[in-house]
Amino acid sequence: MVVFAGQGDARRSMALLWRATGAGDARAVPGPKPALSVDAIVAAGIEIADADDMGALSMRAVGARLGRTAMALYTYVPSKAELVDLMHDRVLAELPADYPTADGWRPAITAWAGDTWAFYLRHPWVLQISQARPVLGPGEYRQLETVVRILRATGLEPTALRRVIGVLFQFVRATARVAAEARRAAPETGVPDEEWWSGRSALLAEVAPDFAERFPALAALEAGAADRAGEGGEDGAEPADAAVPYLENEARETFLAGLTLILDGIDTSVAKEAGGRASVEIVR
């Protein structure tokens, strides 16, 4: 399921996103029930999405959670489209806005990546909101500002820095998506990971007895990985958590390994750019 942000009225969405949080959005409602507010509606929407995914989100469901009708919400939030924008931007506020860089940019961006990975697993519905059209709210810009402040210390020129930031955001998001889907696989299909893999692996050996001959490079890779696992795993790799689904463990290991490769690449780019500048200075 992919949800595109920014589908509601542009002026109303932007006004709601950039309003002073909690200011002027509560209104008197007759009867004993407390006044509704934009903040309360957004919080209820987040609770529904956290519990039951985006498929369960509707203005009627939010209203029911607040003890109101869907019609009662429209005075505050025009439609579900604007609500999605507000939910996405609001939940991003959970992420830290500042990371210490006294030890350099690399530990800081590593901490940011880990926090963002964990954030996506707490709120997997966020991964269903397409990044093709950003929300353009303060929470989104706050997250971006945090990363720019950290990586500005690399000294990379602006165009290169923009590309590096794009790679980091997309990498963390993509690997977290696999982990989030792995968490849902067993409950939604009723088949545990180990049972699924063991059953399919046995069938693969049965229907493709010449697998190693047909795919020799892959077979050699898998055999090498199995040998390393028998010896205690790769150097520096963290042990798999037995309580975590197999695919989620795999996604986490991929995340850690991939992040290291990306940061190594940034280090290389920084050194290359610094060397280029030094060469120019010598020529001058």
Features:
284 residues, mainly alpha, 0% strand, Tetracycline Repressor, domain 2, Arc Repressor Mutant, subunit A, 2 domains, 64% helix
Largest sheet, strands/sense/barrel: none
Amino-to-carboxy terminus distance: 56 Å
Stretches with pLDDT under 50, minimum 5 residues: 20-24, 26-32
Arithmetic mean of pLDDT: 86
CATH hierarchy class name of the largest domain: Mainly Alpha
Supply the helix-strand structural class. Answer: mainly alpha
Number of domains: 2
CATH architecture of the largest domain: Orthogonal Bundle
Q: Specify the overall morphology.
A: flat
Strand coverage percent: under 5%
CATH superfamily of the largest domain: Tetracycline Repressor, domain 2
How many β strands by DSSP? Answer: 0
Question: How much is the radius of gyration in Å?
Answer: 24 Å
Q: What is the count of DSSP helices, taking H or I runs of 4+ residues?
A: 12
State the CATH topology of the largest domain. Answer: Tetracycline Repressor, domain 2
Word description of this protein:
The structure is a single chain. The chain is mainly alpha-helical. The chain contains 12 helices and no strands. The chain has helices spanning 10-17, 38-52, 59-65, 70-73, 80-91, 105-122, 138-151, 158-189, 193-207, 211-214, 216-230, 246-283. The N and C termini lie far apart (56 Å). Residues 20-24 and 26-32 have low confidence and may be disordered. 23% of the residues are buried. The chain has 2 domains: 10-92, Homeodomain-like (Arc Repressor Mutant, subunit A); 95-184 and 202-226 and 246-283, Tetracycline Repressor, domain 2, CATH 1.10.357.
